[in-house]
Design goal:
By secondary structure, the protein is of the alpha/beta class. It is 52% helix and 8% strand. The chain has 25 helices and 10 strands. The strands form 2 sheets. A 6-stranded mixed beta sheet has the order 4-3-2-5-6-7, with helices on both faces. Strands 1-10-9-8 form a 4-stranded antiparallel beta sheet, with helices on one face. A hairpin with a 5-residue loop joins strand 8 and strand 9. Helix 6 packs parallel to helix 8. The two termini are 55 Å apart. The relative contact order is 0.08. Keywords: Hydrolase, Magnesium, Manganese, Metal-binding, Mitochondrion, Nuclease, Repeat, Transit peptide, tRNA processing, Zinc.
């Protein structure tokens, strides 16, 4: 199998590199070759073989007196303490500290000492992973020692393999980073393929070294192969990966690929950060973008594409021909571009998607909440709902305040009631501790709580519950507005793992600010804040600049000069 050479200054394939492509029975011979080859490297010195964790095990302390459950617990504690105080345990602790402090020099000194014949220490997977992580970090971030750190990392990996310690995803990701640091994207990619072959599911971070190395080397074909492998493995790229793919294809003038990737960014990212926006803007200003497209097209096919896609794009390729007029713009409250006059559309959500999402929420919630509690809430909601709006009362009551304010929540309740169709009180979700304790006992707050109860608008979540599940489920199942300033980016919302959620949030979340005159509700816009492609071929790309409620969002507006 071919081993790709490094780019400028070409590092020759080493025995450690060849380990990635050779069968296990050759590893010891290659390790010997690699040890001689690295004899004079700055970080390396000649060493005897280390002990393998496959042949040398830490002594297992005997449990002198089990004495029932107490004795068993004491025995486990003793074993843990002895393991922690053993040479292997001490080395693990010291390497963890090196990893925390990015101290490669000390870590390598500890590694060399562990290999000494006088006091050898068996090395485990964790030891090797710490060492490889530090080597890959130094190789990627320190130009002065990059080559030496990479070679030393390959040496450590070669010994690990020769000693029969099986790598995991973290191990091979570090090796991929070492390969990328030596400007060898083909080797980095081969590591990921090895993972898949060995039954180790690659993660997004596993693909990053190869993908970014190909993109930095301006190898669009190689980057495309990595992207295809990601897709086949079910690994979804995020904005940094998509931006890198956009950049390399734009630089190569591959118009069809840029078009495809813009639409993939539309689906997966929706709004882009400033770095990605610069890549997009540079593409539209390029000669390749001017030359891409057609002078004539079938309007019926474009319209069919818009209908099929749900609005906001057609997918028929670049429309028009000639230079683009590109600049930054803002939208008015109706979604009309202040630069070109194009009115953005509101992209519909399929009702079946909403139903499926509500079912997924239920499944997740009953796994993490007391099942009877959440099912009881669903029953309550069927009796008292639907509601036009749901209020995350904990978020609203603590807005710009150190203590919870019932009057602040009530002012928002009244404000949202005035703008909803039914004029019914919104559903107020609040933890039972807030309802029964603290300043809830004050007479004025008791009156507020009682008015909510009489209207059937208050639901107190039970002790130990996470009220996020309750207000989110209520808003989704009722297809109502959700009043909260919570950006919903934490672990709970990442569990949802679907492109539906950001689309739903955009259409349903009401954010708020307060002034001396009371709350101001920032209702969802009547258009979708997502990359949009119009029927005449123009593009509008929203940025994350403007996520702040008080600041207008910035958009890239790109139209053909000939169409203006």
């Amino acid at each position: 199998m071919r081993v790709a050479a490094a780019a400028a200054g070409g590092l020759r394939p080493t025995a450690a590199t060849l380990l990635l492509f050779s069968p296990p029975h050759q590893h010891r011979r290659l390790l010997s070759l690699h040890r001689r080859a690295t004899q004079h490297l700055p970080f390396a010195r000649r060493r005897r073989d280390s002990y393998s964790t496959a042949t040398v095990a830490a002594p297992i302390p005997k449990q002198e007196d089990a004495g029932g459950a107490g004795g068993e617990a004491e025995g486990k504690a003793t074993r843990r303490r002895r393991a922690r105080d053993s040479p292997e345990g001490n080395l693990r602790h010291q390497l963890d500290m090196c990893s925390r402090n990015a101290d490669l020099t000390t870590a390598l000194r500890l590694y060399d000492a562990a290999l000494s014949a006088d006091s050898p220490v068996p090395l485990s997977l964790h030891h090797y992973n710490c060492l490889l992580y530090l080597c890959s970090n130094a190789a990627a971030s320190d130009p002065d020692s990059s080559a030496a750190a990479a070679r030393r990392g390959f040496d450590i990996f070669a010994r690990m393999e020769a000693n029969g310690v099986q790598p995991n995803e973290a191990t091979l990701t570090s090796v991929a980073r070492l390969a990328a640091a030596t400007r060898d994207p083909a080797m980095a990619f081969s590591v990921v393929r090895r993972m898949a072959t060995a039954g180790i599911p690659p993660r997004l971070r596993s693909y990053g070294p190869a993908l970014f190395a190909y993109c930095e080397a301006k190898d669009a074909d190689g980057a495309q192969q990595v992207e295809a492998h990601m897709d086949a493995s079910g690994v979804v790229p995020e904005e940094p990966e998509l931006a890198a793919l956009l950049r390399v294809n734009a630089d190569k003038g591959r118009a069809d690929e840029v078009y495809r990737l813009l639409h993939r960014t539309r689906v997966l990212v929706r709004q882009v950060c400033d770095t990605t926006a610069q890549v997009v803007e540079a593409w539209f200003r390029s000669d390749a973008a001017s030359e891409a497209g057609v002078d004539k097209w079938d309007p019926r096919k474009v319209k069919e594409g818009v209908i099929k896609g749900g609005g906001g794009w057609h997918g028929q390729g670049w429309l028009g021909k000639g230079p683009w007029s590109v600049d930054w713009s803002e939208m008015d409250k109706n979604g009309t571009c202040q630069r070109c006059g194009e009115r953005l559309v509101c992209i519909d959500i399929d009702p079946s998607e909403t139903e499926n999402f509500a079912n997924s929420l239920t499944e997740l919630a009953i796994k993490r909440e007391v099942k009877d509690d959440f099912l009881g809430f669903q029953s309550w909601l069927r009796r008292h709902g639907p509601f036009d709006a749901v209020i995350d009362a904990a978020n609203v009551g603590l807005y710009n305040s150190k203590s919870f304010s019932f009057s602040q929540v009530n002012s928002v309740v009244n404000a949202i009631q005035r703008v909803t169709k039914s004029k019914k009180l919104p559903l107020i979700i609040l933890h039972r501790n807030r309802v029964n304790g603290g300043n809830a006992k004050a007479p004025y707050n008791q009156k507020i709580l009682e008015s909510w109860r009489k209207a059937g608008a208050l639901y107190a979540t039970p002790p130990g519950s996470n009220d996020d599940w309750y207000w989110l489920y209520a808003a989704v199942s009722c297809q109502s507005l959700l009043v909260t300033n919570d950006e919903m980016r934490d672990h709970l919302f990442q569990l949802l793992g679907t492109s539906f959620f950001p689309r739903w949030k955009e259409k349903h979340q009401v954010r708020l600010t307060f002034s001396g005159s009371g709350p101001t509700l920032h209702l969802p816009p009547p258009y979708s804040i997502v990359i949009q492609e119009s029927v005449d071929g123009s593009w509008h790309v929203p940025t994350t600049t403007g996520d702040d409620i008080e600041k207008p969002r910035q958009w890239i507006c790109s139209t053909r000069k000939s169409s203006k």
